[in-house]
Amino acid sequence: MSRGAANLPPLLCAVPGRTPFRHHREPPLALDVLVVDEASMIDLALMAKLLDALPPHARLIVLGDKDQLASVEAGAVLHSLCAGPDACSPAAAERLCTLTGYEMPNVADVPPLADAIAFLRRRYRFAADSAIAALADAARDQRVDAALGVLANADGDEAQWYADADYGSMVVALADRYEELLRAAQAGATPENLYAMLRRQGVLCAHRTGPYGAETLNRAIESELRRRGAILEPGSWFPGRPVMVRRNDYAARLYNGDLGIVCADADGRLGVYFPDASGELRRFPPARLPGCDSAFAMTVHKSQGSEFESVDFVLPAQRSRILSRELFYTAVTRAIRQVRIWGSADIVRASLTTPVVRDSALAERLWLRPGKKVPVQAALF
């Protein structure tokens, strides 16, 4: 029987204000199969706690994109799991060929973990022959000239590059993306319609602070929309305001990164609507919410796990330690139909030539004994 979807901390029964979870080795989780999505976001400590809480007979299925940004906390668990050979054993290759018709590369002496890893090649979010796919592949493979070529030759339908736009023009363009949403909220559109409109557009930033950061751009976009008359109400709460939760509230089942929309009911009372695990919208009074921020713009880190019809990716004007190939790839792959890049060629190049390096040693422990060419798994399986 399915238990439905849940974030990992509530699944493990997090206790507010305490580090340990209620579920660990004793008592373990009561399940037979656990499917974990967006696994690139799981840090080393949380994965250790999850494995500790699984009953011995349980099967764990981990899904994710190893080329996305790693977790904010220590470790790169999914990337480390995928750091072995791109091959399986002959027996596994024969079994997969029988089931799927695909012929897999196989090696006689691969570690057992290799038979438990599958790389899915077909995309479903955006078309395989689109400019988004070409840009994502070039970013993933660190082919800088190819990525710049895709941007330089973009016709604006699927990709567009603003290499030298001034700041004021950028803010005006970004406000354009949300004006229809705010006008619809003023006209009394339903929460369902407003939330669907919100998911059409995402403005993603490399930084949280600074002139090109999410916090500053949220204020600038809101100010421009007020200047146009698209926001009439004073104060921070108004119909059509997109908001993002920044702190977990386990009792309300609202979690850091959840995206919602403000809507007025027939009596003019404001409520904030968030989708539940089934996609149905739940209403909360603004005063009931944990800490929230406006979400006209958000950081790339906060956007992980989301998708938008159109994405604007705002890069800083100067080089930064935040920039990385994984950040660029994650931002581009949030888009379904169109991606717009705001940043100079120098900043794009700096992003694509800077991979994230994590020294957790997990990959070495999983695949090789330190100083020996003997897989650790030989002693584990």
Topology of helices and strands:
Elements: H1 8-11, E1 33-36, H2 44-53, E2 59-62, H3 77-81, H4 90-100, H5 131-140, H6 144-152, E3 159-162, H7 167-186, H8 191-198, E4 201-205, H9 214-227, E5 242-245, E6 259-264, E7 270-275, E8 281-284, E9 292-294, E10 298-299, H10 300-303, E11 308-314, H11 325-332, E12 335-342, H12 345-352, H13 362-367
Parallel strand pairs: 1-2, 3-12, 4-10, 4-11, 11-12
Antiparallel strand pairs: 5-6, 5-9, 6-7, 7-8
Helix pairs in contact: 5-6, 5-11, 7-9
Descriptive overview:
There is one protein chain. The protein is an alpha/beta fold and 381 residues long. The protein folds into 2 domains: 8-122 and 357-367, P-loop containing nucleotide triphosphate hydrolases (Rossmann fold); 131-353, Rossmann fold (3-Layer(aba) Sandwich). The protein has helices at residues 8-11, 44-53, 77-81, 90-100, 131-140, 144-152, 167-186, 191-198, 214-227, 300-303, 325-332, 345-352, 362-367; strands at 33-36, 59-62, 159-162, 201-205, 242-245, 259-264, 270-275, 281-284, 292-294, 298-299, 308-314, 335-342. The strands form 3 sheets. The protein has a 5-stranded parallel sheet, with helices on both faces. Helix 7 (167-186) crosses helix 9 (214-227). The protein is globular. Mean pLDDT is 87; it is low at 374-381.
